[in-house]
């Protein structure tokens, strides 16, 4: 948020509303949007609220802001997302929580001692967080492994795609294209000045890794999965009239967007396949009109499965109720500055990164339309059309 203020020089009191996305909530800062806004020096008169929609939480924050502006409620909205994966809340067991709450209400020493005497060693076993579906109890990695198997995607194909992501991200970083990273001083450590998860390897090294989820025959490994990382993002959204009146030249229009949801067990990660044709129809565009594609890379297998599903008439007819396929995005337009596999995936922050990267790529490459898409836990998905502002 401070980085956004520095980069844009927007006056703090001009911002009408702040919306932030997050996934793993800290109890003490459940409305992290408000706490972060106050910490960043925004006016205490500026309302703020927090949304959660798994990996598309900051997408939801952005589109919530768009809706508020379209409804005439606001002129200037700051949207973003944050995740602190290095310090996630870890809970006591349910037995221990119940005992501690009852203990807090105990009035006499005898009552307190009686409750304490009932505590058993297993009460101290913590409840560790897991990237798992509440409805199916299946981890997302298991879902990705099954999805890759269903679409016949080999381990080698997944490793090759992951290596592509890291290689392209390293190239973009070396060329200074990843220009929106704000230096951050980590307490007790050095200042982070660039994404530090970009690590081009080799097919040989990646091939040595064992399956991470479905053992021993799975194809999803640590190397072809997005890694969990800390991260935060922020984006400034205005009506065009307000931006021009304030002397700003917008980067891009957030033109159209859709949300979709489907079966959280067998189609957990196919959100982009379902959302892409819908958002294209909404915007009156075809796949060939899109100059830049930015898809969230949860797993290499997930990306490749979506590309296969999008290019399948059979899938479109049998699962989507469509007469024909939408088609697969060409790889020369697809995530050419790297993606979540190489840049990391701080759940709540990724959506804004996708959108701003699409805008920067459009400007750099001279394109007009970008398509952002992502899958999310719960079998949900999102797609958005980003249009370059006339230069």
TrEMBL record:
<feature type="domain" description="Thiolase N-terminal">
    <location>
        <begin position="2"/>
        <end position="241"/>
    </location>
</feature>
<keyword id="KW-0809">Transit peptide</keyword>
<keyword id="KW-0496">Mitochondrion</keyword>
<keyword id="KW-1000">Mitochondrion outer membrane</keyword>
<keyword id="KW-0443">Lipid metabolism</keyword>
<keyword id="KW-0256">Endoplasmic reticulum</keyword>
<keyword id="KW-0012">Acyltransferase</keyword>
<keyword id="KW-0999">Mitochondrion inner membrane</keyword>
<keyword id="KW-0276">Fatty acid metabolism</keyword>
<dbReference type="InterPro" id="IPR020615">
    <property type="entry name" value="Thiolase_acyl_enz_int_AS"/>
</dbReference>
<comment type="similarity">
    <text>Belongs to the thiolase-like superfamily. Thiolase family.</text>
</comment>
<dbReference type="GO" id="GO:0005783">
    <property type="term" value="C:endoplasmic reticulum"/>
</dbReference>
<dbReference type="InterPro" id="IPR016039">
    <property type="entry name" value="Thiolase-like"/>
</dbReference>
<comment type="subunit">
    <text>Heterotetramer of 2 alpha/HADHA and 2 beta/HADHB subunits; forms the mitochondrial trifunctional enzyme. Also purified as higher order heterooligomers including a 4 alpha/HADHA and 4 beta/HADHB heterooligomer which physiological significance remains unclear. The mitochondrial trifunctional enzyme interacts with MTLN. Interacts with RSAD2/viperin.</text>
</comment>
<feature type="active site" description="Proton acceptor">
    <location>
        <position position="345"/>
    </location>
</feature>
<dbReference type="InterPro" id="IPR020613">
    <property type="entry name" value="Thiolase_CS"/>
</dbReference>
<dbReference type="GO" id="GO:0003988">
    <property type="term" value="F:acetyl-CoA C-acyltransferase activity"/>
</dbReference>
<feature type="active site" description="Acyl-thioester intermediate">
    <location>
        <position position="55"/>
    </location>
</feature>
<dbReference type="Pfam" id="PF02803">
    <property type="entry name" value="Thiolase_C"/>
</dbReference>
<dbReference type="GO" id="GO:0006635">
    <property type="term" value="P:fatty acid beta-oxidation"/>
</dbReference>
<dbReference type="GO" id="GO:0016507">
    <property type="term" value="C:mitochondrial fatty acid beta-oxidation multienzyme complex"/>
</dbReference>
<feature type="active site" description="Proton acceptor">
    <location>
        <position position="375"/>
    </location>
</feature>
<dbReference type="InterPro" id="IPR002155">
    <property type="entry name" value="Thiolase"/>
</dbReference>
<dbReference type="Pfam" id="PF00108">
    <property type="entry name" value="Thiolase_N"/>
</dbReference>
<dbReference type="InterPro" id="IPR020610">
    <property type="entry name" value="Thiolase_AS"/>
</dbReference>
<dbReference type="InterPro" id="IPR020616">
    <property type="entry name" value="Thiolase_N"/>
</dbReference>
<comment type="pathway">
    <text>Lipid metabolism; fatty acid beta-oxidation.</text>
</comment>
<feature type="domain" description="Thiolase C-terminal">
    <location>
        <begin position="248"/>
        <end position="387"/>
    </location>
</feature>
<keyword id="KW-0808">Transferase</keyword>
<dbReference type="GO" id="GO:0005743">
    <property type="term" value="C:mitochondrial inner membrane"/>
</dbReference>
<dbReference type="InterPro" id="IPR020617">
    <property type="entry name" value="Thiolase_C"/>
</dbReference>
<comment type="function">
    <text>Mitochondrial trifunctional enzyme catalyzes the last three of the four reactions of the mitochondrial beta-oxidation pathway. The mitochondrial beta-oxidation pathway is the major energy-producing process in tissues and is performed through four consecutive reactions breaking down fatty acids into acetyl-CoA. Among the enzymes involved in this pathway, the trifunctional enzyme exhibits specificity for long-chain fatty acids.</text>
</comment>
<protein>
    <recommendedName>
        <fullName>Trifunctional enzyme subunit beta, mitochondrial</fullName>
        <ecNumber>2.3.1.155</ecNumber>
        <ecNumber>2.3.1.16</ecNumber>
    </recommendedName>
</protein>
<keyword id="KW-0472">Membrane</keyword>
<dbReference type="GO" id="GO:0050633">
    <property type="term" value="F:acetyl-CoA C-myristoyltransferase activity"/>
</dbReference>
<dbReference type="GO" id="GO:0005741">
    <property type="term" value="C:mitochondrial outer membrane"/>
</dbReference>
<keyword id="KW-0007">Acetylation</keyword>
């Amino acid at each position: 948020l401070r980085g956004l203020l520095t980069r844009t020089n927007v006056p703090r009191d001009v911002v009408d509303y702040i919306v932030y996305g997050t996934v793993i909530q800290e109890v003490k800062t459940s409305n992290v949007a408000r706490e972060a806004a106050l910490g960043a020096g925004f006016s205490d008169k500026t309302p703020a609220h927090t949304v959660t929609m798994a990996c598309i939480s900051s997408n939801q924050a952005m589109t919530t802001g768009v809706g508020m502006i379209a409804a005439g409620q606001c002129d200037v909205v700051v949207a973003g997302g944050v995740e602190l994966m290095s310090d996630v809340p870890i809970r006591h067991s349910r037995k221990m929580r119940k005992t501690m709450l009852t203990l807090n209400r105990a009035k006499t020493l005898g009552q307190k001692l009686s409750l304490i005497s009932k505590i058993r060693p297993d009460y101290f076993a913590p409840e560790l967080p897991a990237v798992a579906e509440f409805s199916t109890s299946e981890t997302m990695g298991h879902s990705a492994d099954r999805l890759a198997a269903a679409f016949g995607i080999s381990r080698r194909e997944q490793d090759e795609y992951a290596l592509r992501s890291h290689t392209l991200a390293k190239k973009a970083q070396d060329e200074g294209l990843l220009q929106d990273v704000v230096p951050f001083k980590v307490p007790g450590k050095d200042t982070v000045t660039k994404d530090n998860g970009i690590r081009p390897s080799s097919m040989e090294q990646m091939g040595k890794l064992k399956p991470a989820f479905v053992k021993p025959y799975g194809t999803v490994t640590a190397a072809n999965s997005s890694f969990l990382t800390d991260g935060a993002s922020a984006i400034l959204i205005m009506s065009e009239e307000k931006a021009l009146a304030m002397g700003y030249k917008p980067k891009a229009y957030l033109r159209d967007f859709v949300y979709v949801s489907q079966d959280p067990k067998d189609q957990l990660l196919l959100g982009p396949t379902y959302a892409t044709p819908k958002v294209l129809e909404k915007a009156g565009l075809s796949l060939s009109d899109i100059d830049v594609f930015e898809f969230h890379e949860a797993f290499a297998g997930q990306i490749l499965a979506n590309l296969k599903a999008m290019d399948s008439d059979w899938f479109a007819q049998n699962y989507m109720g469509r007469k024909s396929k939408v088609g697969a995005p060409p790889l020369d337009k697809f995530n050419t500055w790297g993606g979540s596999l190489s840049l990391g995936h701080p759940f709540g922050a990724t959506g804004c990164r996708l959108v701003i990267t699409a805008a920067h790529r459009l400007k750099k490459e001279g394109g007009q339309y970008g398509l952002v898409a992502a899958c999310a836990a719960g079998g949900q998905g999102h797609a958005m059309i980003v249009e370059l502002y006339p230069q």
